[in-house]
Amino acid sequence: MFNFKEHPMKMKSIFNKKTLIAIATIGTLSFQSCLDDGDNYAVRFPNALVTVKTDADQTVFLQLDDKTTLLPTNMPKSPYGEKEVRALINYKEVDEPGDIYTQAVYINWIDSILTKPVAPDLGEENDAVYGTDPVEIVNDWVTIAEDGYLTLRFRTRRGDYHTKHFVNLLLSQNPENPYEAEFRHNAKGDIYGKYADGLVAFKLDALPDTEGKTVKLKLKWKSYSGEKSVEFDYCTRKSVTPESPAVTSVRNSLNLQ
Question: What are the residues facing 234 on neighbouring strands?
Fold first, then answer.
């Protein structure tokens, strides 16, 4: 986690003690803080889910939703270089000009989410590679389709903290619905233990262009109680800046792949 306060904030992870679990700040996990007593308690929690982008002139900015952009006044360059990632942040608005951006803000802290492209269809090898282990998709404010990404909070069993779970999004190849995808989970044999939550974001540029319309994006997954699905409102990402750098997996926030 990149922290822009004088006193760094530490958070306790249930998946990997060396890295931040974004979910911890949402309310399911505990964390520790060495903030001063005078610091605002609310600073400990994320108040936005954003896409970290870099403009043509290398100015870093944050895409808050499909229309709103934030200019971080205390973050002259992206902590992630030219890589575009989804991230949780805690920020406050400041009384400074935002130039071409919607609002100038001060970033208290930022932490990236594992950000991946849609996985290639391997046909008969899908089950062996991507797995069929169950998960639950959590209905939460960070489970959302926006800015060309599907961000998911999910829940599964976790026992071995050294095993990286492999999560992916596959297109369903349904000829009747091109906007259908499947969440896959390969626990690498780590299927016992307590329930734990994770966050992952998938870039949806492999889907057909909706041509400005909002359509229903259907997500399917194997849950602990059987097959489930849910629909999201989805519109192809609108360009607000010059073409962004290619999406890559910056780090395994939750000991994931």
Answer: 215
- The answer as to whether 253 is a domain residue is no
Same domain as 229, residue 125 = yes
* Predicted TM-score (pTM) of this structure: 0.80
Question: Per the domain annotation, does 190 fall within a domain?
Answer: yes
For residues 134 and 31, membership in a common domain is answered with: no
- Quote the tokens at residue 223: 């849950």
Residue 239 located in a structural domain: no
pLDDT in tens, 104-114: 999 999 999 99
Number of domains in the chain: 2
Backbone angles phi, psi at 103, to 5 degrees: -150, 140
Per-residue pLDDT of 76-113, as tens digits, reads: 899 999 899 999 999 999 998 888 899 999 999 999 99
